[in-house]
Amino acid sequence: MAEPGKRAVAQWRRWALANLGPFAALFTTNFGSAWLILAPVVSLVATYAPRRLFRTYFNLFLRRRSRRLLNVVDPYVTIDISEPGGEVRYSRYGPVSDNDSTYEEVKAYLSGAAREQDARELRAEGAREGNGLVVSMRDGQDVADEFRGVPLWWSSVVARDVQGQRKGDRRFQRLTFHLSHRALVVDEYLPHVRRQGREILFSNRRRRLYTNSKSRDSYSYEYKSWSYIDFDHPTTFDTLAMDRAKKRDIIHDLDTFRNSREFYRRAGKPWKRGYLLYGPPGTGKSTMVAAMANYLDYDIYDVELTVVHTNSDLRKLLIDTTSKSIIVIEDIDCTLDVTGDRAGRPRRRANGGGDADDRPRDSVTLSGLLNFIDGLWSACTGERIVVFTTNHVERLDPALIRRGRMDMHIEMSYCRFEAFQTLAKNYLDIDDHDDLFAAVGEVLREENLTPADVAECLMAARRAGSGEPSPCLQILIDELKKRAVEKAKAEAEAKARAEAQAKAWAEAEARAAVEANAAARDRAMATHSNV
Ligand SMILES: Nc1ncnc2c1ncn2[C@@H]1O[C@H](COP(=O)(O)OP(=O)(O)OP(=O)(O)O)[C@@H](O)[C@H]1O
C-alpha cells in the first residue's frame, strides 16, 4: 500500500495533468473551444476513475499494439507440455488419466525423432515397463520435425524461476511453430504426436495376460475384476501349424482390422472384431490366440465365466479392459448355456455337469453375453478383439455366432501335411526330407491326429533319435501309428461310456416317470375312495 504522502502527490499530479492541458488550451485560439468542453470531463474522470482502470486499459492497448508488432518481428508460437507435478501415476492398466500421460507420450514420440536426427546429447531411461529404453533429448537439445510439410521444432527445457534457478527437476517439452499453422498443430499435429507416442510406449511395455478372479480386494472389500501376469508366450504365426492359405487369410484379416481405425470411425462402428475358433481338443485354438496376441502386440483378457455372477458383473469386466486387447472366452459351450434351443426343455451341460437350469438365478445369461459382445462397445474406445473357442460349434446358439458378432469363423482342424511341415521345422529344424516326409504325410492323411498329438510324438522321436532327422522321422512314423491306434481305442471306449451313460439316464428318467405316474394314480384313488 502507498504511503499517505505519496498518495496525495500522485493524486495532485493526476489532477494537474488532466487540467493543465485545458488551461493551456484556453490561451490558444484553434482548440480552445474544444478543450473548454472536454476539460471538465477529462478532469472528472482523471480525478475519480480508479487508477487501476486506466492502467488496465493502457496495458491492453500497449499489449495489443506490441503483439501486432511482435507478430511481424517474431511470428513463432510456443506450446509447453510440462512434466506432470509428481510422479506419473499408473494404475494397473496404464496412466491414471490422459493429462498425466501427455508428457510421457510426447517424450516417447520425440525419442523416435531424436534417434533419427542429429540430436547428439541424448538421455536414456529404462522404460516404465519392459526391458526397452526410452531415449530422449538432454535439456537444451532441439529436434526438428515436419508434419504435412510444416516445419516444427521441439526443445527440452528445464523450468527455472525468475532468478534463473532450476525449479527442482520439472521439465517441459517446448514446441515452436509459425503462428499461421496454429490450427493444424493444435487440431492435428498434437493428437498425432500423442497417438504415435502412445504406440511407442505400448510397444515398449510388457504384455499382460489378465484373468478375472473371485478374490476380494483387501481394501475395498469389492470383487477385484482382473489380475494379471506377464504374457510371454513364444508362439507366433510362423510356429503355428495349420494350412498355409488359412493362416494367410487370418493374418490379412488381422492386418486389415488393425489398420482400419479411420474406416470404423467413418462408418460409426465400434472398432472390434470377433473370431470363433472351433475344432477338436488339441488342434491349437489356445495357441492361435497366443499367436494373434503376439502378432498384434495386444494384451489378453481370459474371461472365466464360471466366476462371473451376474450380467452386470460381466459388463463391469468389459469396461475394465484396455484398448488393444483380445478378450477370450474359452470353451464357451461348457461355461454357459449358449446352445441352440434356449426356449426348450432343460438340457444337460456340454461338459456333463448338471442341467442348464440348475444354474443359480444370478448367473450370466446368453442375452447378457450378447450385450457384452455388441451392446456395450459404445462404452469403450480403442480396438478390441473377442475370441470364443469351442470344441462343439454345432451346440452354439446361432445368435451368438452370427456374422457381425463373430466376424470370422476359423476351423482348427486335424494335422495334415502342411501343418506337419511347420511342426517338423519347430521341433527338428528341418524343412523337408526325401522319402520320410511323404511317408509321414501318408499317415496323417489317413489318421485324424491333432497337432498336439503330432507335437508330442515329435518330442518323443526327437529324444529317441537324438535330434538326427532320419532316425527321428522313422521313429515319428511309428509313434504316429501307435498314437492313432491308441486314440481310436480311447475314442471307442469314450463313445461306449457316453452311450451307457445316456442309456442309464434314459432308464432313470423312465423309472422316475413310472413312479410319478404310480404316485398320481394312488393319489387319485385315495381321493376317489374318500369321496
Ligand atoms: N496348430 C498348432 N500349432 C502348433 N502347436 C500346436 C498346435 N495345436 C496344438 N499345438 C500344441 O499342442 C498344445 C495344446 O494345444 P492347444 O491348447 O492350443 O489346443 P486347443 O485346441 O486349445 O485344445 P483344447 O480345446 O483342449 O483347449 C500346445 O501347447 C501346442 O504345443
What ligand molecules are bound, each kind once? adenosine-5'-triphosphate
Which residues form runs of ≥5 with pLDDT under 50?
86-99, 340-361
The first-level CATH class name of the largest domain? Alpha Beta
Q: Biggest sheet: strands, sense, closure?
A: 7 strands, mixed
The largest beta-sheet arranges its strands as 10-9-12-13-14-11-15
CATH homology superfamily name of the largest domain: P-loop containing nucleotide triphosphate hydrolases
Q: Tell me the count of domains.
A: 4
End-to-end distance: 111 Å
Shape: elongated
Q: How much beta, percentage-wise?
A: 15-25%
Q: Please identify, by name, the CATH architecture of the largest domain.
A: 3-Layer(aba) Sandwich
- Any idea of the CATH topology of the largest domain? Rossmann fold
Mean pLDDT: 78
Rg over CA atoms: 38 Å
Structural class: alpha/beta
Query: What is the number of E strands?
Result: 15
Question: What would you say this structure looks like, in words?
Answer:
With 531 residues, the chain is α/β, with parallel strands linked by helices. It has four domains: 4-70, no CATH class; 76-205, no CATH class; 209-411, Rossmann fold (3-Layer(aba) Sandwich), CATH 3.40.50; 419-506, no CATH class. Helices cover 50% and strands 17% of the residues. It is built from 16 helices and 15 strands. The protein has helices spanning 4-26, 32-48, 51-73, 98-116, 182-204, 244-258, 261-267, 285-296, 311-319, 332-335, 366-375, 398-401, 417-428, 436-446, 451-464, 469-530; strands at 76-82, 90-91, 94-95, 122-126, 133-137, 142-147, 150-160, 166-178, 208-212, 226-230, 272-278, 299-302, 325-329, 384-390, 408-411. The strands form four sheets. The chain has a seven-stranded mixed beta sheet. Strands 1-8-7-6 form a four-stranded antiparallel beta sheet, with helices on one face. Strands 2-3 form a two-stranded antiparallel ribbon. It starts with a helix and ends with a helix. Residues 86-99 and 340-361 have low confidence and may be disordered. Adenosine-5'-triphosphate binds next to helix 8 and helix 15. Residues 473-501 form a coiled coil. One of its GO terms (biological process) is response to stress. InterPro entries: AAA+_ATPase, AAA_N_dom, At3g28540-like_C, ATPase_AAA_core, ATPase_AAA_CS, Mitochondrial_chaperone_BCS1, P-loop_NTPase.
